[in-house]
């Protein structure tokens, strides 16, 4: 370099370089070639001093090209205005500090930057190319404004410490696919992306110290951390993601060693995709708002959550919340949440596994169906106080659920639509106390420790209890609806067994089936109410009679009048006593003549009447005396009545004894 060719500002920089003294040249042109030559050894070192380039405020003319160069000195060009984009492609440098400068771009692919890269508060009107670069210190883009379709291209970037990009404006895509960050990656307060495109593309990135896209962060387009690995925790608290009709957050197979915070005012317009993600800590959606009408607001099947899922308070989702095959260690809490997907599934929890409880209570509401099937919840399933609506469809489908606690639809629970629980196992109480269900209630094939229907329960549609088994039926018979299906419904005991007439009215709500009567009678006997059990079985025979043919009905009426189908045996005694009295009086007044007067025993009207009424036992009176005229017709009637009474008594007693 010829010293005489240097301008006065360049000469000042030449003199300052050996000691790395700062030079401030506001608005003064300095040739990029002069800077490059000094960095590459044109300026000799001075003994006892450390050289370096420290320039502020200058206009850098020409291109600063250090491609594949070995630069051992720090490069500090702050508040400078670059005429052309600097080139560091493949270079090995120390610290590069371009803070608060204006650049038309930056080319540093495959560069090795040994002391950190500072680009904070820059204005960059072109792409920043850092693909394959290695920054051994911190890379700082905080406060920087970048305008380009592909604003930052840093695939394969390695940053040994932190990548800071807080309060920046990245007007285009920030792409760090396959990058490795040794510290934290911070984008709090940053605006990134353009509508309809991609914002942050960080697929396969590894961030050892955690990712923070917190308060003030705004993403336009798809933000992708698919297949990323994040140490500590991943934070989207207060962030806003906007990609309507598309994917707002793509976290497929995202792995986080700590918690995932999508809370504190987080808003997503578009789908939040977390399929197959693994969160070792907790997942929080408290005060989050997800909007994707007609689609999936939260698409998170096959997730593994190590310390509970919390979406309370204030969680709002417009569109389906899809959590099929997700496994949660701890509890799932959506208390107070508001889900809306009218006419479709609002919350899907097929094959869900939860080691704690599942709670959708305390102001929770859903417009659309909630599906929980083939699921295992080791704690309780709570919907108390929830408001579910899906007119014309099902509001809640719990199929093949294994609950280690109870299922609570009490304390103000309301459902506008059908509620279906099928083939489920419930270790504690299935509760509908103080609930209102404006639709059918299907409880088929359910096993529960108890079933509770309270005095304030309102059931407006058909209730199907077929093939359900409960330990204790704790209900108010009058609160059941007008139509019940109970064939195969079994229970071990009744919390309030009497009065029996209320139970009979309860059984009358269903078309005749014998099993519900047999079941109720069995439970009454177990309680020690044998008379009530006989009342139930008598009512069963009377209802059974209504569907029989004429002959069978007449025979049934006869059994009912005479012995109450065997459950009223005292009636036979009354009939016999009445006939015995009648016969004794008639035959005392008009003694029938003897067949053989010389051989006949003394006539006894009482014993003669007994002989007529009892078809098997003989007292020797009927064979010795023969009535005439009207007495003969009376005798024939008594013989017929005796046979009928004997037959009905035997049949009735046999039936009664077989039930004991």
UniProtKB/TrEMBL annotation:
Highest taxon above the source species: Bacteria
Keywords of this entry: Membrane, Transmembrane, Transmembrane helix
Membrane-spanning residues: 572-590, 602-621, 633-654
Record bears the keyword Transmembrane: yes
Name of the protein: Oxidoreductase
Keyword Transmembrane listed: yes
